[in-house]
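Budget justification aside, the reviewers requested a transparent look at the raw inputs and outputs of the sequence design task funded under Objective 1. We therefore reproduce one unedited record. The lines immediately below are the structure tokens for a 279-residue chain.
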């Protein structure tokens, strides 16, 4: 009798000893790292398998976009920027990565809900896989940028070596934003339509197609509180300006990326039960 009583007491669930959802999610990501890489490969394979032009479109698309934008903004608005195609393409491919990866995450959460309901796979693993697969797209687009730089005679400097770590900082920011977008899109099905509008406004609030110098002094603080402005510096400084980002620029970018990841995963884990109900 006493032994049974002791066993019943030992099996009581103590909420005080329960793992923090945020910490548990990060630990689960590490535990499922092999699955994460496998799902990333699956995303990349499916994306190009269902495409008529496959990888070729990843190369042709930025060339088509840069041709249109370069003509419109350099010829019509007459921005006095040397090698404007390099200037705009270095920022445009970064924005395309951010916009597409964060937008597709909402659909990934919905498409994989059957897997997460049957197996103990963290939802964030699918979102990380989405970011990594679009990071692959970004890397391919940078090959196009390298060709444009060579054709226009834009210098290749040693600063280009810091582009990969800068891409990871941007990817961290995209992952955090994507977690929040996916959560809100699951809870409120019309949120993804609102996010599309937000992305359009966000694009023009980021100095991608225009130089920051033409923005009136009174309006510049609004652009400087935009995290994408600072992340853009980490990418454009080594590619276009040929310089290493300063320590303060690195610190700002890394802090932005880390805060985005923590906030995004926190929103995702805290809304887990509500998402399961709404899904």
């Amino acid at each position: 009798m006493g032994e049974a009583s002791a066993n019943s007491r030992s099996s009581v669930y103590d909420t005080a000893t329960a793992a923090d959802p945020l910490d548990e999610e990060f630990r689960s990501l590490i535990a499922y790292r092999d699955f994460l890489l496998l799902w990333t490969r699956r995303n990349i394979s499916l994306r190009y398998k269902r495409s008529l032009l496959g990888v070729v479109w990843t190369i042709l698309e930025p060339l088509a976009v840069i041709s249109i934008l370069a003509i419109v903004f350099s010829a019509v608005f007459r921005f006095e920027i040397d090698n404007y195609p390099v200037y705009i393409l270095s920022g445009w491919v970064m924005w395309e990565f951010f916009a597409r990866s964060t937008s597709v995450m909402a659909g990934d959460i919905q498409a994989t809900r059957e897997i997460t309901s049957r197996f103990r796979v963290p939802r964030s693993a699918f979102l990380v896989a989405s970011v990594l697969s679009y990071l692959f797209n970004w890397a391919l687009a940078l090959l196009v940028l390298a060709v444009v730089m060579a054709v226009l005679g834009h210098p290749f400097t040693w600063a280009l070596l810091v582009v990969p770590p800068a891409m990871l900082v941007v990817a961290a920011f995209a992952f955090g934003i994507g977690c929040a977008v996916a959560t809100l899109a699951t809870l409120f099905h019309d949120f993804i339509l609102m996010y599309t509008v937000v992305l359009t406004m966000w694009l023009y609030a980021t100095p991608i197609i225009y130089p920051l110098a033409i923005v009136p002094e009174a309006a510049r603080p609004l652009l400087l509180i935009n995290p994408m402005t600072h992340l853009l510096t980490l990418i454009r400084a080594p590619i276009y300006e040929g310089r290493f980002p300063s320590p303060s620029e690195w610190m700002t970018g890394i802090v932005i990326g880390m805060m985005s990841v923590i906030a995004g995963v926190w929103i995702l884990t805290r809304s887990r039960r509500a998402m399961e109900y709404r899904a």
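The CA atoms of residues 185 and 193 lie 9 Å apart. The radius of gyration is 22 Å. Computational costs for records of this kind are itemized in the attached budget.
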